[in-house]
Amino acid sequence: MRTDVKSALRTISLLELLSRPGAELTHTQIVECLDVPKSSLTPLLQTLVDHGYISRDRITHTYSLGEAIDHLMTPARHLIFLRERLAPVVIQLAEDTDETALFGIRQGLEVRVINMAQGNTRTPYQIHEGEHLPLKASSAGKTIWAHETRTVRVALFQAIEANEENSPSRAAFDRDMKDVAQRGIAIMRDKLAVGVTSVSTPLFTSDGRLLGALSVGLLSARYTEAMHEKIVSALQRAVTAAQERLA
């Protein structure tokens, strides 16, 4: 049976109250809105003010959200920005290849799908925005992994090695990552799902910072040499378009 912590619930209620548009409330107004004892609210407000999560206006004696909340929201705003800017790029990539296209970023040992679009040809493995794919079983994950710094690559390898019995040797892993980094393309066949192949390429910012990967997935039976060339060409155009939209 779950037991809620009263102080945590009050903190959540307080932050939700102050997150309303234009919310600048006095101590008394907050007490009335939340129906909490003044003696309980005072130390909570002071703690949040001290840590920057709430700001107190010394003239009006009103409380509002502080700068620390803005810092917490930065990653979320970044994802929203990426999703909005790259949506047309992923849609065009799906249209150019007539296959499933996506943009994903690394989160821990997984790839989070930020954008996804489907062409007319569907694969048996359906992917949705917000879904998390295994880093080592997706071409998007593989290409991101290969283009991380060496320190990050090794840390990820060690984390996966600790949880899996049949992980590759370190030497084989290094060769594989080097090959992907040199080609700029990662290919995974029948890993994420039987009968599905995916091809990915990394996406960097204009100053060389790794953002994530653009990827195209298709039925393995359709993955011919001609289709490979078509996908690689479409991915290259998508990278150029993405960098222009992110500039």
Automatic annotation (TrEMBL):
InterPro entries: GAF-like_dom_sf, HTH_MetabolicPath_Reg, Tscrpt_reg_IclR_C, Tscrpt_reg_IclR_N, WH-like_DNA-bd_sf, WH_DNA-bd_sf. One of its GO terms (biological process) is negative regulation of DNA-templated transcription. SUPFAM superfamilies: GAF domain-like (SSF55781), Winged helix' DNA-binding domain (SSF46785). It holds the Pfam family IclR_C. Residues 5-67 form the HTH iclR-type domain. Residues 61-247 form the IclR-ED domain. Gene3D superfamilies: 3.30.450.40, Winged helix-like DNA-binding domain superfamily/Winged helix DNA-binding domain (1.10.10.10). Keywords: DNA-binding, Transcription, Transcription regulation. One of its GO terms (molecular function) is DNA binding. This is IclR family transcriptional regulator. It comes from Gluconobacter morbifer G707.
